[in-house]
Amino acid sequence: MPTMIKKDDKTMDPPNEKPHKKIERDDIPESSNHIPPPEASVLRGGKINSKTRAMKAVTSIIVNTDEKPQKSSNKVDGAEKPETGHWSSNIGKFEYIFYKFLLVMLYICFGLLRYGQYQYNKMKLRIFSIIYNHAYTPQLIRQDVVSLKKIPKRLAAILEIKPVGDVGGGVTGLLNDASEIVCWTVSAGIKHLVLYDYDGLLQRNVPELRKEIHSNLAKYFGPSHVPNYAVKIPHSNKTFYNLDGIESETDSGEVVNGNDEGSGIAIEVSLLSNRDGRETIVDLTKTMAELCSVNELSVSDITMDLVDSELKQLVGPEPDLLLYFGPSLDLQGFPPWHIRLTEFYWEKDNNEVIYSVFIRGLRQYAGCKVNVGK
Amino acid sequence: MKVPSVIQIQFVALRRLLAETKEQFCFAIKNKLRRIFGWIMSFSLFSWLYRTIQNFLIKVLSVGPVPEHVSFIMDGNRRYAKSRKLPVKKGHEAGGLTLLTLLYICKRLGVRCVSAYAFSIENFNRPKEEVDTLMNLFTIKLDEFAKRANDYKDPLYGSKIRIVGDQSLLSPGMREKTAKVEEITKHGGDFTLYICFPYTSRNDILHTIQGSVQDCLQNKSQSKIDIKKFTNKMYMDFYSNKCELLIRTSGHRRLSDYMLWQVHENATIEFSDTLWPNFSFLAMYLMILKWSFFCTIQRYNERNHTLFERVYEGVPSILKRKKTSISLHQFPNPPISVSITGED
């Protein structure tokens, strides 16, 4: 149904008329409002996650006898949930406090063990970073990859911004991380890369990102042999080629040769944000409802294939391997439709974008077996 | 720094060898231990002790924060059967038993909702006998659950069972059965069990899209769809928005088309290498304890810190090396600078 797809694109994404020096969108908040899962949020570190604070937090539960979930985010507004007091009914007050006390003890033991594990993991990571070292040499990366049985066709990575005062923090740090991953991916011979960040900071800083990628690629390959790359924003349907290549609007997600006709594009980088997740699916539903109401589409036409092809068009194909460079897996709202069979890889307690995570992720992927349903 | 390739190859070979032997060794040891454990458990004193300790641990944890929605991907039944040279059916039966025990534990911990991935739509691609066996087993288990949920002596009393998924793929007889079970247990409130039977998450999303479009057509109230409403229309009612803890067994690190919508925002996803029938009380207890521990800290931080502080103050980790800023004036004075030409 090619006609409908066109229409969808028109209705959903009115072409952005602004000059593309800086793509600004109002719907993206300045700071992250993402609530990570408990472990990830605590292990992220920071002043508020100090050991003494953790201790205070753990012991405070004795005092807080009326502990209620602060944010019952599970409760969707408008829906009522059966309310039950499962504890108050069959347990005395004294017993309750006794169990709370024991729970604190249990927490403390667990915390100590976890701290030991944390240190062990950190040590392991340090050793890994010695064993796996790219030394800014693409040949070495390729050598690491050649021994693997298979590599993913599409790689995705979730990046997050670090506090400005930190090493590798702020937008610059984010851009640097992104371009490092681009270089590794090019060297490994993977043609498609998806970079996801919750707030869409990469999408808003495309010119800087292109510059950063260029300079980093020059560092790896030498200034005269910088591979061709394309940066794509599926949300606004734009593609940028190389450092100063012309920008064009492509209809399909395939890699098209840019201004340099002779050699193809070595890598295509798609930038995604939270906007491409749930919201896009809901937008698609709205569009379909509109089309149905004017009888251009019937409800029975909405099939898995149609939705899948539409979402492929709007967001891109499903990645094969998803790398996360944080301490504990946190998908941060990565487009849900696109993580169906995606392998995840992250290193426990790691908090940096490092090469060992990248190469070990590829190793895991090479060893995994996908059997849909079987 | 680059490690010479010769040494690197040695490393790799050694690592592989270690991994292989380690796996076999671990497996043998575990089997032995399990057998010894089973033997010890055959004494009533020990089994009583075990149960008492387990009850006690559950009670302790249940006074803290517990996840509301726990979800399982029950992977590894067939490998379990294969490793013990049993027919596949036995593996699935063992899996069903594990689910039942874990349900008891979850319920007593205070978890509100458990969902389990019983059968994927893709599983219809399996050999026909196996699909039939699974269906049969499923109906038997379902009846058992329904009976338990209605038996006030049973720990599962008062739970609600919902079978979610694309029911149109089931045979009419099956559909009748599932409807009956849902009907019997619909008054339960404390605890909901969602059994995802032929389910895939993409199918769930597609189903919701269709439903929303249909609604729009009927009510003529377009563009009123938002994420909340959309989520409410999904198979799992008000538990559709979020699943706090997803547990996947048997070592794969992917979601396999399960709970994509629920899990992709802020759920904790735990992967375990044990096969599902071997997934024990202790393993799950530790996972929930971990969740509970970190959740306590997170909530405490949320209560005591504004968003502003969280975003702008959370700078360097205490666990990392401390970076102190120092101004140039704080250094001791350098020695006198003298030029070789002797000038001032």
UniProtKB/TrEMBL annotation, chain A:
Keywords: Endoplasmic reticulum, Magnesium, Membrane, Transferase, Transmembrane, Transmembrane helix. It is an enzyme of class 2 (transferase). It catalyses: n isopentenyl diphosphate + (2E,6E)-farnesyl diphosphate = a di-trans,poly-cis-polyprenyl diphosphate + n diphosphate. Residues 1-46 are annotated as: Disordered. InterPro entries: Nus1/NgBR (IPR038887), UPP_synth-like_sf (IPR036424). Pathway: Protein modification; protein glycosylation. Residues 1-28 have a biased composition (Basic and acidic residues). Its EC number is 2.5.1.87. It is found in: Endoplasmic reticulum membrane. Its cofactor is Mg(2+). The chain crosses the membrane at residues 97-116. Belongs to the UPP synthase family. This is ditrans,polycis-polyprenyl diphosphate synthase [(2E,6E)-farnesyldiphosphate specific]. It comes from Saccharomyces eubayanus (Yeast). The lineage of its organism: Eukaryota, Fungi, Dikarya, Ascomycota, Saccharomycotina. The gene is U6500D00600.
Automatic annotation (TrEMBL), chain B:
Transmembrane segments: none annotated. The keyword Membrane does not apply. Its EC number is 2.5.1.-. Keywords: Transferase. It is an enzyme of class 2 (transferase). It comes from the Eukaryota. Signal peptide: none annotated. Pfam families: Prenyltransf. The keyword Transferase applies. Gene3D superfamilies: Decaprenyl diphosphate synthase-like. Belongs to the UPP synthase family. This is Alkyl transferase. It comes from Saccharomyces eubayanus.
